[in-house]
Design brief:
By secondary structure, the protein is of the alpha+beta class. It is built from 10 helices and 4 strands. The protein is 59% helix and 11% strand. A 4-stranded antiparallel beta sheet has the order 1-2-3-4, with no helix packed on it. The chain is elongated and about 135 Å long.
Length: 484
């Protein structure tokens, strides 16, 4: 009996030693279908002075965003945002699925105990007399354990691991997008609050002008036309106040949704100023270094690896499947003698299934697996191309936004001077009020444009920081990592 058990154990160990080969195609990272350098030209700034600047992916968001209020809101969003919470739960789900597939590499050992009693009538009893038959057993057994000779289970485990790693990278991508979205909503709210304040200041100034012209009109020193022209500017300012009051409320609602909870009033921005979101300078780096570290691209690559592993499982289906079922234990017709000497039992039932004919089902499954791999490859390459375009667009805007902001600032100063001069000429009777009205419109538009240019510059920095993979965490574990 001991000899048979030893032979069984040795044969099982030998088979396990031979198991584990994989029929999946060998994986190598595809070449990135993008240029090796970022675009250059009149729209792009010279980057020779950025050699010493840190790469965006290595710059933590706490270092990039220096505004105290904004950093506090980002920290709240990382704790409370529901999208990020769902992404974390998807990781837990993928981790559990991986553990399920990994458990298939080892036999499942179950303990069992069975007791039964049966009355046998005299017509069926071998002794011709009715009797009661009792049977008791207890033991340990392995049921339908598959010997992974051709790597089917191993391929499924690799696919599950790739899915887990992809979900981890997806969470990192959600985290980066969340940080950028909080910053964008915060800056938009700040800009709209400043526009609202500009509209209120304009209404105050226009109301004072209207009151002055109305008194002059009552005295006969101003025409009805001048009075109505002044009234149009008052009404236009009132319209803008109502419009920006709505936008500010909507901006707060949007920011509250992203943060995942109520917004403390002390953390809301007052206005958009040049130093509101001062950021650390960073270098774009090379496409080959930057893009392949973006979590969305890493997630697409993990999906590609998973589809590649699925091909191994589909190929293994063409080969025999060997499953083992066995048990050792004790059996007796009396419960008191169940564990007595000589009551031990054992059973060993190997099973081999050799596919012969299935009307092409296995070949179709293999073609589906190969098509899935090709689809994942195309998506991976498209993800790289999309990321390259996002960075290139942000760099193109970055190369000209400072010049645009400088020109807008100069325009605002010039229109302010023009407005002062036209107001003085009107008060002295040199020009009509129409000249003042045109100067007021130009000044208001220039001030609005200046706020918009400042917002565009800050949003461009946030977008570029996100597109370059900044604000994330270290990449997820590789396939060689032994997950808990």
């Amino acid at each position: 009996m001991k000899r048979k058990r030893s032979i069984l154990c040795l044969s099982g160990a030998a088979v396990l030693f031979l198991a584990g080969c994989s029929l999946a195609p060998s994986y190598s990272r595809p070449e990135a279908p993008v240029p090796a350098e970022w675009p250059s030209g009149p729209s792009y700034a010279e980057r020779g002075d950025e050699q010493e600047a840190p790469v965006a992916a290595a710059l933590a968001w706490q270092e990039f965003f220096v505004d105290r209020r904004l950093r506090a809101l980002i920290a709240m969003a990382l704790e409370q945002n529901r999208d990020l919470r769902v992404a974390a739960l998807n990781i837990e789900k993928a981790r559990a699925q991986y553990r399920i597939e990994r458990a298939g590499l080892l036999p499942a050992l179950d303990a069992s105990g069975v007791g039964s009693k049966q009355r046998v009538p005299d017509t069926l009893s071998p002794t011709g007399e009715a009797q009661t038959v009792a049977q008791y057993s207890a033991g340990l057994g392995v049921s339908a354990y598959e010997l992974d000779l051709f790597g089917r289970v191993q391929s499924l485990k690799k696919q599950a691991l790739a899915q887990y790693l992809a979900s981890e990278e997806a969470r990192r991508a959600v985290r980066i997008s969340l940080i950028a979205e909080v910053a964008a909503d915060y800056l938009t709210l700040a800009a709209d609050r400043e526009r609202l304040q500009l509209a209120r200041n304009t209404l105050t100034a226009q109301q004072a002008t209207y009151d002055l012209i109305r008194r002059r009109h009552e005295l006969g020193a101003a025409s009805e036309l001048e009075l109505r022209q002044a009234q149009t500017r008052v009404d236009a300012a009132r319209v803008d106040i109502a419009r920006y009051t709505t936008l500010v409320a909507q901006d707060q609602n949007s920011l509250s949704l992203v943060v995942g909870g109520p917004l403390p009033e002390e953390l809301l921005p007052e206005s958009l100023s040049a130093s509101l979101a001062a950021v650390e300078e960073f270098a774009p780096g090379l496409p080959s270094e930057v893009l392949l570290r973006r979590p969305d691209i890493l997630a697409a690559e993990q999906q590609l690896k998973g589809m590649n592993a699925n091909i191994g499982a589909a190929r293994a289906a063409f080969f025999p499947r060997i499953t083992l079922t066995g048990s050792v234990g004790f059996g007796s017709d009396e419960l008191s003698t169940l564990f007595a000497a000589g009551s031990d039992t054992w059973a060993f039932a190997p099973r081999v299934v050799l596919p012969i004919f299935d009307a092409g089902s296995r070949w179709s499954r293999l073609r589906v697996a190969e098509a899935d791999r090709d689809i994942a490859l195309a998506r991976y390459e498209k993800a790289i191309q999309t990321a390259f375009r996002e960075v290139a667009d942000a760099l193109a805007q970055r190369g000209t936004i400072d010049e645009q902001l400088a020109a807008q600032s100069s325009l605002a100063e010039a229109t302010a001077s023009s407005h002062r001069l036209s107001q003085a000429r009107y008060e002295k009777g040199v020009d009509s009020y129409l000249t003042v009205l045109d100067a007021q419109r130009a000044l208001y538009a220039a001030q609005h444009g200046l706020i918009g240019s400042r917002l565009t510059r800050l949003l461009n920095l946030v977008t570029l920081y996100k597109a370059l993979g900044g604000g994330g965490e270290p990449a997820a574990a590789t396939e060689t990592t032994d997950m808990p």
